[in-house]
Amino acid sequence: MPDTALLVSAVDLAATLLAPLGTRWHHTIGVAHRAERVASTVRAADRDLLVAAAWLHDIGYAARDTGFHPVDGARHLSALGWPSRLVALVAHHSGARFTAQAQGLGHLMSAYPHEDSPVSDALAYADQTTDPEGGPVTLRGRLAEMLARHGSDSANARAHHLRGPYLHAVADRVEGRL
Ligand SMILES: [Fe+2]
């Protein structure tokens, strides 16, 4: 069933929290639009959930708690009473579990069930084919930029041998469904 109210609330909360952050907001708008364009890869009943999660996936940057933005976003949404499936999608977006593990923060993820589905794939694909300024980018380009930005000693770099292949498999699945 479409959930227009969920989507409207997601845009509203994302704008409130992220618009003041500038670039992060432009990235979010780009991810949400990309999610709309790949929404045909998920069940009709899940499309609003997908796009709502795209709007909200990075709000952890504006609601700092642990310092790990996927979990911070999930905690914030959970405290506000958002649906648990959406909360878990935000916690796990774009292979966050691999980065959490590399940072010794794996235990923070255990509160959120890991969904491995066309919805989690489409969310990761939308995020990882949108650059930090909101423009389109290939997955390969996005990962290269991310590694350059975070540095070779970063948790992102340490997680890359697991997260990279996961994201490439995600991209193959999404493009196969389009
Ligand atoms: Fe993102």
UniProtKB/TrEMBL annotation:
Source organism per UniProt: Actinokineospora diospyrosa
Entries under Pfam families matching the protein: HD (PF01966)
This protein's name: HDIG domain-containing protein
Cleavable signal peptide: none
InterPro entries per record: HD/PDEase_dom, HD_domain, HDIG_dom
Residue span(s) of domain HD: 24-127
UniProt xrefs under CDD domains: HDc (cd00077)
